[in-house]
């Protein structure tokens, strides 16, 4: 089976996406930024080596959205916190390898994604760390067989998110690839 790259996206409406960024630049501006950042990202990461799938939220509105490219398949994120939704996506695909990214990391490109899939050749899991203690990518060699405790008890949006997530994987072998900046605040927009 071909590797799968899942991009977690929300319908870019003011007050629904990038709310921390919205506190700095306004909710409409932050939704506009996310919409254009994600569209650019999707153009940069499509590649014949893997299939790109959108994990959309809210579920119904995301499936019907005309904002995202129509040729990309979609799955529902479902309810719960970020860990619940990512674990659901990981369990939802047969076969291997699968990576998940968000839409708010300007530095993501095909080479970074290829690095992640390559790391899964020798490891059961891979993370792409972010400079704030979180991460921009999580991947599994065989996602369906993961433990039910994966991504539980993670302190999301803190400097502990990566460490907590790695701990939730138990004894799995874990690789790390390049550390990138994500965008949560106006200051993050200035970092490239």
Protein topology:
Blueprint: E1 4-10, H1 19-25, H2 27-45, E2 51-57, H3 59-64, E3 74-76, H4 82-91, E4 98-102, H5 110-119, E5 125-129, E6 135-140, H6 161-168, E7 174-176, H7 186-189
Parallel strand pairs: 1-2, 1-4, 2-3, 5-7
Antiparallel strand pairs: 4-6, 5-6
Helix pairs in contact: 1-2
Low-confidence stretches: none
Structural class: alpha/beta
Top CATH class: Alpha Beta
Query: Please, how many helices?
Result: 7
Written as H for each helix and E for each strand, in order along the chain, the element string is EHHEHEHEHEEHEH
Strand content: 15-25%
Descriptive terms for the model:
192 residues; alpha/beta; Spore Coat Polysaccharide Biosynthesis Protein SpsA, Chain A; seven-stranded mixed beta sheet; 7 helices; 33% helix; 19% strand; globular
Short description:
By secondary structure, the protein is of the alpha/beta class.
Question: Any overview of this molecule?
Answer:
It is a single chain. This protein is of the alpha/beta class and 192 residues long. It has one domain (4-186): Spore Coat Polysaccharide Biosynthesis Protein SpsA, Chain A. Helices cover 33% and strands 19% of the residues. The protein has 7 helices and 7 strands. A 7-stranded mixed sheet has the order 3-2-1-4-6-5-7, sandwiched between helices. The longest helix is centred in the N-terminal third of the chain and has 19 residues, at 27-45. The radius of gyration is 16 Å and the shape is globular. The termini are far apart. The mean pLDDT is 93.
């Amino acid at each position: 089976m071909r590797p799968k790259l899942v991009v977690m996206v929300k319908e870019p409406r003011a007050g629904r996406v990038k709310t921390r960024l919205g506190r700095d630049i306004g909710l409409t501006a932050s939704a506009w930024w996310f919409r254009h950042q994600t569209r650019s990202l999707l153009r940069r990461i499509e590649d014949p080596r893997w299939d790109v799938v959108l994990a959309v939220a809210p579920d119904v509105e995301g499936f019907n959205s005309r904002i995202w490219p129509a040729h990309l398949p979609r799955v529902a994120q479902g309810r719960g916190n970020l860990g619940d939704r990512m674990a659901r996506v990981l369990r939802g695909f047969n076969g291997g390898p699968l990576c998940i990214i968000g839409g708010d990391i300007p530095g993501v490109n095909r080479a970074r994604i290829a690095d992640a899939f390559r790391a899964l050749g020798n490891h059961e899991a891979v993370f792409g760390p972010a400079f704030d203690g979180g991460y921009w990518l999580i991947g599994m060699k065989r996602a369906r067989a993961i433990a039910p405790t994966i991504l539980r008890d993670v302190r999301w949006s803190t400097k502990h998110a990566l460490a907590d997530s790695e701990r939730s994987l138990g004894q799995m072998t874990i690789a790390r690839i390049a550390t990138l900046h994500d965008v949560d605040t106006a200051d993050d927009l200035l970092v490239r």
